[in-house]
Amino acid sequence: MPYFKCTQEIGKPDLVPEEFHGSKSQAGVVPSTSTAEGISSSRVADNTGESSSSETCKSNYAKLPDYLRSCLDYSSFVSNRYPVEIGKLVRLLLAEGLIQDKPGDIMEDVAANVVKELIDLGMLQEVHDGTEVKVPPSYLQLSILKLEKQDFVSKTANSPVRLAIRDGGRDIFPNVEGRLVRSLFIITAERRHDSFGSTGCLSRAYMGNVCGMRFLLVLDLDGKIAYLPDEVGDLIHLRYLGLANSDLDELPRTLGNLQKLQTLDIRMCGKLSKLPIEVLHIQQLRHLLMSKSINDCEIRVSEGIGKMVNLHTLSGIYGGDGIARELSALTQIKDLGVKRVSEDHASELFAAIKKMESLASLSLEAEECFFEETNCALFPELDAFSPPPLLQEFYLHGGLIEIPMWLASMENLTRLTLSFSFLWENPTSVLQLLPKLKHLNLWEAYRAKHIGKEFCNAGGFPALETLTIASQFLVEWTEIATGAFPSLRSLSFRCCLSLIFFLKACRTFPHFKSCIWTPCHQTLQGD
Length: 527
Known about the structure:
This protein is about 15% helix and about 25% strand. It is α/β, with parallel strands linked by helices. The strands form four sheets. It has an 18-stranded mixed β-sheet, sandwiched between helices. The protein has a four-stranded parallel β-sheet with strand order 21-23-25-27, with no helix packed on it. Helix 9 (about 345-355) links the parallel strand 14 (about 335-340) and strand 15. Helix 3 packs across helix 4 (about 105-120). The radius of gyration is 24 Å and the shape is globular. Pfam families: LRR_14, WHD_DRP. Keywords: Repeat.
């Protein structure tokens, strides 16, 4: 199935098309042997995004098996202008049918392995602490073919296509009559920071045209829309529905008609605070992504969430009102995010999480309260919490009296975020012993004004590749122990407006590439 990207720009033709080659083959089972054999290394040499010679890239591209080439072409399509979140790419690959289910294997794991294989081959490049990927320019140009408008019209007539629209802000839906659009991606002018001449959001009429495309498998809308019509329930083939940043305050009950839906993404969805009960009746739903909306409320779901036994991802949910008890039935879940954790349901929630033996990623956010002269969140009963043994990613948002001792036992942890912990004790005394920790984000986690050798001993943080520190308190970092941070590649200071001195010995680390300060104190000095 070919891919086409169309742009609507003010003062330019309605459609400016580009074609992405796309694989002619359908989804295939991923072979058990590595496809890296016979393919030369094409890893990015530096952070400029440049790969090896174009001839090597062409040869590598030609040698790819069909299933990998189709996934690379698709990755070029969805990350042409902006990097794409790895989890989102995995979900899209599944919805598009580019990954075939194998008996006994979890579909998401198969798709994630395909993405990892492309990363290992240098055909996908990790960015933003390894949470997103993009296709390097040398491979991107192999997947894209510029088209004249007349060629676009002839090539897409009565042919299934994937279409991406960068809206120009005029609220005019492009003419796609006679084209069988199976996947539609729209990014609004507001999200593109191109508000000149923009109407502000996609109108009801515009959305009516979108919902008239009855054979859609994927619909991803990024930006404000005025209204999601009931007719969205007529898109019965839909497997992926993305409504991130849409500014909606309610969802239609007809979403329950979408019985083939695998992913519903309503993160940062305006004033939305409640999920229609009909969504809980979609038995094939595997990924339900929700989050706190702009008016600081969580997404509340009705009783029945515990019956969704196929859920793989559940984020942005409120654990109160008996929901924590229901979560204990979701023992198969691998990615969980809970908002406003409080004393009234913490014990039930922690007991439910303990049963989730396959859990790989967990995010917990405490309910806001008055703590240590700040209006922040404070976690209850964390001493009673026992993290699942396979947990690889952990996000803990809220005040801590002391660093939990069970953190030292999380030997499989690769990514950790502590935000607004406001600890008086040094958290790294425990964290530096974690053998597999690659990415650490300390956002207002530690109140120290001065950091020295005690922050990391020789050999501490053996696998850490990226470290991010945000602190209103930090004034200086004066010493770094010899042999500390042996694998560190990137160090970032975010919002450290009091920081005036930093020892730049990190530049001598064997794998170090970048040190970032944004924003910083005007008198910041280094030695």
